[in-house]
Automatic annotation (TrEMBL):
<keyword id="KW-0560">Oxidoreductase</keyword>
<protein>
    <submittedName>
        <fullName>NADH:flavin oxidoreductase / NADH oxidase family protein</fullName>
    </submittedName>
</protein>
<dbReference type="InterPro" id="IPR013785">
    <property type="entry name" value="Aldolase_TIM"/>
</dbReference>
<dbReference type="InterPro" id="IPR051799">
    <property type="entry name" value="NADH_flavin_oxidoreductase"/>
</dbReference>
<dbReference type="Pfam" id="PF00724">
    <property type="entry name" value="Oxidored_FMN"/>
</dbReference>
<dbReference type="InterPro" id="IPR001155">
    <property type="entry name" value="OxRdtase_FMN_N"/>
</dbReference>
<feature type="domain" description="NADH:flavin oxidoreductase/NADH oxidase N-terminal">
    <location>
        <begin position="3"/>
        <end position="242"/>
    </location>
</feature>
<dbReference type="GO" id="GO:0010181">
    <property type="term" value="F:FMN binding"/>
</dbReference>
<keyword id="KW-0285">Flavoprotein</keyword>
<dbReference type="GO" id="GO:0016491">
    <property type="term" value="F:oxidoreductase activity"/>
</dbReference>
Length: 310
């Protein structure tokens, strides 16, 4: 597509890594993810030396991405993955320079930004994906996240993508914001009042009117669309062409246990993207048959991983 650019997202799962990618995950502290499945394995606490090694690994990955032709890189620090775990008072109970207080908890992320910038140079854009909050009691709060956003702007990032939630509180799946668009728009407005770093908002964006209102009003500079494309891969093109917004399936009725509701959403969309990757047409509905097939496929994959020798 003329004018299109491609950025690589760089991520480390930390304590939510799945077998066989790691037999025993690592994390800021040796505490389990409080979600069924992930809480079976207690992670190893990273040493300060190992943290510094991982930061260099982020930088090397970014360097390789640019060498391979990517136009920019994004550091994933949201959704309960490793750098998000460092930001969380629940997941990070360290008593050294990478923990102890809010300043310490964001040090790993800021050091990663500095290392990546040194690796890719001043011309390659760097983005960070950040939770507005963890939506989990005791996790990263909105107030602390705003401080992180300000520090990232001061560190010279080129784009901040705003999202929220993790596997325990899957706000990014919409389970905390049923019936509304632009889940994290209020937080974006608060960030805009503190800094002029370019902002991208992802989560619950469905209609052209909402997207145009946010961008034209200056609340954000970009909008992100992800889950709708699992059912309608050309969703953004239709929006840009002025066509009516494609209808999306409602999905399964929430059962009230947010981690499981999030898992159901993840399973459905995971199955859809696998269909697209295999060259098949996405399902246009999310009926009970589709849900059951998605759950069977994803559960079988996770079960086969879990029984591998350790």
């Amino acid at each position: 597509m003329p004018g299109a650019v491609v950025w690589m997202q760089i991520n480390h799962p930390g304590r939510v890594a799945t077998v066989p990618f790691t037999r025993r995950p690592v994390a800021p502290s040796a505490s389990r993810e409080p979600v069924p499945g992930y809480n079976l394995r207690k992670p190893r606490e990273l040493t300060a030396t190992r943290i510094e090694t991982l930061i260099r690994s982020y930088a090397r990955t970014a360097e390789l991405a640019v060498a391979a032709g990517f136009d920019g890189v994004q550091i994933h620090a949201a959704h309960g993955y490793l750098l998000s775990q460092f930001l969380s008072p629940l997941a990070n109970t360290r008593d050294d320079r990478y923990g102890r207080d809010a300043v310490g908890r964001r040090r790993a992320l800021l050091d990663t930004v500095t290392a990546v910038r040194a690796a890719v140079g001043p011309r390659t854009p760097i983005s960070v994906k950040l939770n507005s909050a963890d939506f989990q009691h005791g996790g990263l709060t909105e107030a602390e996240s705003l401080d992180v956003a300000t520090a990232l702007a001061d560190a010279g990032i080129d784009l901040l993508e705003i999202t929220g939630g993790n596997y325990a509180g899957p706000a990014m799946e919409g389970v905390h914001h049923t019936g509304r668009e632009a889940y994290f728009a209020d937080y974006a407005t608060k960030v805009r009042e503190l800094t002029q770093v370019p902002l991208m908002l992802t989560g619950g964006l469905r209609t052209r009117d909402t997207m145009e209102h946010l961008v034209r009003g200056g609340a954000v500079d970009l909008v992100g669309i992800a889950r709708p494309m699992a059912f309608v891969p050309d969703y953004p093109a239709r929006i840009l062409a002025g066509e009516p917004e494609p209808l999306l399936p409602q999905g399964p009725r929430p059962i009230g246990y947010r981690p499981l509701d999030g898992y159901l959403q993840l399973a459905i969309h995971n199955a859809q993207f696998h269909r697209v990757a295999a060259g098949r047409t996405p399902h246009t509905h999310a009926g009970i048959g589709t849900v059951l097939r998605a759950l069977t496929t994803m559960s079988a994959a996770m079960t086969s991983q879990a029984v591998l020798p350790r």
